[in-house]
Specification:
The chain is of the alpha/beta class and about 260 residues long. The strands form 2 sheets. Strands 4-2-1-6-7-8 form a 6-stranded parallel beta sheet. The protein has a two-stranded parallel sheet with strand order 3-5. β1, α2 and β2 form a beta-alpha-beta unit. It holds the Pfam family CTP_transf_like. Belongs to the NadD family.
């Protein structure tokens, strides 16, 4: 009986599969959010979670079309993506993904995690979100699948506490809560400051301050908005960061 030789493609696939199986599993943080704009609280939270959970890197995932904010003004996805790239560029442990922005239709966390599991099959995912959002997490689409796909890390500012009854039914091994003082910063407040002509220096990264001014984001309807940064603002835009109103606007299926 004559044995057929394996094709080059099948041999390469087998080699890659074997190599993937042998490689150590990565630990990847996933910080999803509208990032409108991204601020220093996001960066501090991501850095702190990376340290505490020994993550290889943190992937920032700007929301594409936040379904819960239809009918509200949200900055263009490319503006939010570029602000995120600018904000994270100096940290080699940070990276930015277009997985949500490039996916058509409304953005749901479960879709984000499904796609990332395909992109990073040999990785353990740690989804970083505002602890406030966790109170409503069981209303998110396919929430049980989300906890199968990733460990959730809820970050909150001092004085904010979750109610135990809101977290019943969630596997304790798949959920961690940590307190981070810098989370008192919010994208909502940053937008309001820009609209009112107040500075946002040291609340958002310097490059993002300059980008907001250059692109004229968050201008008030009346016109000029004062010293957002090195230039005046003269265009328009608004928000979309999921847990933003309370503390961190990390991705949420329901909140601002």
């Amino acid at each position: 009986m004559i044995k057929r030789k394996k094709s080059v493609r099948s041999r390469v696939h087998a080699a890659l599969t074997a190599k993937s199986a042998e490689a150590p599993r990565q630990r990847i943080g996933v910080m999803g959010g509208t990032f409108d704009p991204i601020h220093n609280g996001h960066l501090v939270a991501a850095s702190e979670v990376a340290d505490r959970f020994d993550l290889d890197f943190v992937l920032f995932v700007p929301t594409g079309e936040p379904w819960q904010k239809r009918g509200r003004k949200v900055s263009h996805s490319e503006d939010r993506y570029l602000m995120t790239v600018i904000a994270t560029a100096s940290n080699p442990q940070f990276s930015v993904s277009r997985v949500d922005i490039d996916r058509p239709g409304a953005t749901y966390t479960v879709d984000t995690l499904r796609d990332l599991k395909v992109i990073y099959p040999n990785a353990d995912l740690f989804f970083i979100t505002g602890a406030d959002a966790l109170q409503k997490i069981m209303t998110w689409r396919d929430w049980e699948e989300m906890f199968d796909a990733a460990t959730f890390v809820g970050v909150t500012r001092p004085g904010v506490h979750l109610r135990a009854e809101d977290l019943k039914g969630i596997d304790a091994s798949r959920l961690h809560l940590i307190e981070i003082p810098a989370m008192a910063i919010s994208s909502t407040d940053c937008r309001k400051r820009v609209e009112a002509g107040r500075p946002v220096w040291y609340l958002v990264p310097d490059g993002v301050v300059q980008y907001i001014a250059k692109r004229g984001l968050y201008q008030s309807a009346e016109g000029t908005v004062g010293s957002v940064g090195p230039a005046s603002v003269n265009s328009t835009s608004e928000d979309t960061a999921p847990v933003d109103a309370a503390s961190v606007d990390a991705k949420s299926d329901t909140d601002d």
